[in-house]
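User: Structure please.
Assistant: Input sequence and predicted structure:
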Amino acid sequence: MNPTRHCNETDSVVKIGDKSDFQTGNIFRHLWATIMSFNLTAGADREYVLACLNDLKSVFTSFGEPVLTLVNNATMPELSISAVEQEIARISSMEFFMKVFGPGKEDPVSLIENIEPILDPSAIEHHPPELAEDQVTNLLNVPAEIQRAQDLAFFLDRGDVTLKLFLWRRLQKAYESIQYPTKVISCSLRSIEIIVGELVAPTYLELPSNQRQETLLRWLNRADYLMLNVIGKILDDPKSSFECIDMSHLQSSMSAIARLSRLLHSFVLYEDSVRIGQTSPPEIRPAAAAKAYDHYKEKLRSMLVRSWTLQYTLIKEGIAQNKELFDMPSDDCINYLRSVHNALGIRSYCRYANKVLLKVMKQELLTLDAEDSYESDVAQVLFDYYGLKFSPELDISLDHGCPVEKLDRPTALMMVDFAMLQAKRMNIKDFLKSDLKSTIDTIQMSIGWSGRIYPAITQNKRIISAFLKSPINPAILYRAVQGVSDVSVVPVHTESYRLAENGWYFLLGLAAFTKFKTQKRLGPTATDDLDLAATFFRRELEHGVDRWETWYRLGQVYDAKLEEDITWSAEKLNHHRADLTLLERRAIHSYSMAIALAIRTADSSAGNKKDHIRSLYTIWLPDLCFFKGAFFNGPHLAWDDFTRHFSSDKSQQMYTGKPFRDMKLYSTWYFASYLFSKSHG
């Protein structure tokens, strides 16, 4: 075929053709047949064939875009601009498919360069770092490449959707191989869009009923697989999952997911109709078919949960990209989750899809900074997931049929603030009788004691133990009632510091202490609760010694333990007096620190502060220092076991002596009278 001759023929047709009275298609048939026959010859230049087809397209445009139908002609059934464009796309695609499917075409960067401009031209603005800048520039600026990409896109749009999905899958694998997860997510979302688009296309809707049903199930399975992968990747790395996904992409994906959710909801309506007796369930035999039917119903329920969960992640990202349009973005997100949770929960769907909706809700409700209160929703989610119950004031009236899972440590740490908020609203005695008590015990069991040894906590533990066992220095007692007593500890910056700061250990200690005190005792009782209370109080003090109430309650624990030891038996008085002395000494030290800190740090309200200090004066040394001191002959005030070695200036020799003077009987009486006067002043 002579190129010059073809161009001359084409020009002649355009120049001398009668555009107003064009009766035959002989010229078009001749041009078309000439081009097609040349294309079938060996060694035909593809670029030249494309140029000829483009010339033919111009001729059709010049003559008003006629459409010529050739009867009984399978080779050329129709001559039109559309047919020319389709042929151009077909020829252009041959080279493309050779690059993609040819042998040795596994280089991910090469695949991305060839496939992405065809499937999603707008996405090349977010090319991966592995693509060189000059490669992307060439891809964007060369007109021939752009035209070829458009032709290939046109061909794919006219072709089978399975091919398009396959190409998206190849592109996704290429991005996976270069570890670019945000583009992997984008490819999966685009594939879902294609599937949903196919379900509303005439090619699907015009199928016979049986074939349409089979096709629907096949596409739903494919969409479910894609949603499963996308949700997993988004939840694993929510911050960077949408880095290259703009608002236009989000809107198209949200629209597709909404259509899919609407389709799946028809199954929900069917199940509702069966549940209320409006529709009779089908009778399926044999048993294997009935089992397969039930299995697929479970699959559809899981798909529904995944679709609403995936839609939430897209909506949340859309809100983040358009913050100026939302006054309360966190509340809008939670309201979406609340509505979906209620709709799925009453149908007992929350347990499906591996509880992915509950996982997302748990994370969002416990971390989002919302303006409104959603405590009932938090309680319902935690009840669904872990079977935990909180305050009776929170509305948890529905059982969503979720199997209970074991509470893990990270979630338990997230729940501490919420649990403390509920506990602070309750009287301690009511707390012991409530479901919240068992919930908090479960949370503490999941948190446990950190297996890691922190030097700061270890050092503080030694300092507090030494302080509680130390002899009672009268000067320290005098300074305590002036608010100047203190214990020097090391600052702690650990994970458990937040628990101590929120009063978690104090609450656990107070619960154990109150449980012991409220028991009706008619004889000797085990003091395990007191030991547990002391452990929690001292655990909080190891993180900071500035809370006067913790010292006060610790003193009460030692006081109660001492009272329990001497009330029912004289054995410890006769044989273990040293243990009793240690307990009383610990109680006095605890009360002294409580007095000192209360004077300095109690509630700034004058009335409350005065009442607290009066209470401490009344309970502290008048009881321990005077009455018990007289009964025990004051061994807790003695320091015979705490002598120290000194160096004499005169003899230049070492000697053993007292570190400070005793607190004599008169001093004890005088100090007690001072405390009584302060407690009534």
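The beta strands are 68-69, 78-79, 644-647, 654-657.
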